Structures are given as C-alpha cells and as structure tokens.
Amino acid sequence: MTGFAKTMTANDASSHAGRGKGSLMLRAGVVAVLALAMGGCAGGVHLKNPIKIKHHRVTRSTMQLPPSDITTIGVNAYLWRASLDALSFMPLVQADQAGGVIATDWYANPQNPAERMKVTVAILDKDLRSDALRVTAARQVSQGGGWVDAPVEAATVQRLEDVILTKARTLRQATLIK
Questions:
Q1: Is the pLDDT assigned to residue 172 strictly greater than 70?
Q2: Of 62, 111, 121, 150, which has the maximum CB count within 10 A?
Q3: Phi and psi for 93 in degrees, rounded to 5?
Q4: Residue of 71, 112, 68, 106 lying closest to 87 (CA atoms)
Q5: In sequence order, what are the beta bridge partners of 146?
C-alpha cells in the first residue's frame, strides 16, 4: 500500500467514527424531545378537559363486573370482607386471610344470656360461589352454673351463609367497572 492509500484509509476511519458518535447523540436527543413532548400531551388532556369525564355517559353495554376470583389475599376478597362484616358483632379469635379461616370466640346475646354461640367460617375457593363458603357453629346453654353443648339449628347456619353470600355479591356489584 502506498503512503497516500494509508493516509486515506486512516482519514476515512476517523471521519466515520466521528459521524457515528454525532448521529448517536442526535438520535438520543430526538428520542428525549419526543418523550417529553408525548408526556406533556398526556398530562394536558387529563388536566384541561375534565368536562368530558364529568359528563361522560356510560351505557349498560359497557359496564362489566369485576372478576369474581380476586386473589390478592389468598381467598376471594368479597367473601372475606362479607364474612368479617357479618361476624363483626362477635369477638374474633382467628382471622387467617391466607388460609381463609375466621373463627369467633363465644358470644352471648345480651337479650338471651343463658345461651352462647361460636362460629367458624372457612372460605374454600378463590371464586365467588356458594360452595366456596362453609359455616359451622357451636351452641351452648347454661345449666346448673355451667355450659352444656346444645344442637344448632341447620336454618341458623344456612341464614348466616345466605347473609355472607348476599353481602359478597353486593360488594362485587358495588365495584362495577365502568
């Protein structure tokens, strides 16, 4: 190779390296400017036009129910919340949201102090279904200064399950996605 060819090759390489660095910086600048411009537009739409949101009308066809298998706590959140609400008048012994078990301590109704009840609620599934809930109850009556086990009416447990399921459905419907 002649001296001129060597010089030409070295000059070409240095000029290409300079152009690559400059075009990379130019590209980065363009991307940064576009990102700022797009970010500014998104913020402006929400802040400058609250009337559209305020007067927006949602039709029935666009309403959707939230998913029935809310699992952020290990069990169905609607059943969990409804169970806690339904048993809020009784003292809690255990509330394991990962396992889905709520157990109460003995509760005596002030109007009938000779009788007391204890309730356990187990949420068995992540879906909002009637078979995902199991309620058990124990009942005792006062006899001779002590407490004696007594049978629990099946209707009592069934009513409590119905109350919890109704509350869970109400909670789910209250969180309609519009």
A1: yes
A2: 121
A3: -105, -40
A4: 106
A5: 143
List the alpha helices (DSSP H) in the chain. Answer: 3-48, 50-54, 77-86, 154-174
Residue type, 156: T
Q: Which residues of 145-160 are buried (b: 16+ CB within 10 A; e: fewer)?
A: eebeeeeeeeeeeeeb
Highest mean pLDDT among 2-6, 40-44, 58-62, 164-168: 164-168
Cβ 107 vs Cβ 118: under 8 Å: yes
Predicted TM-score (pTM) of the model is 0.60
Single out the residue of 55, 104, 54 nearest to residue 83, CA to CA: 104
- CA dihedral in degrees (70, 73, 76, 77; nearest 10)? -80
**Distance (Å, rounded) from C-alpha 139 to C-alpha 147?**
9
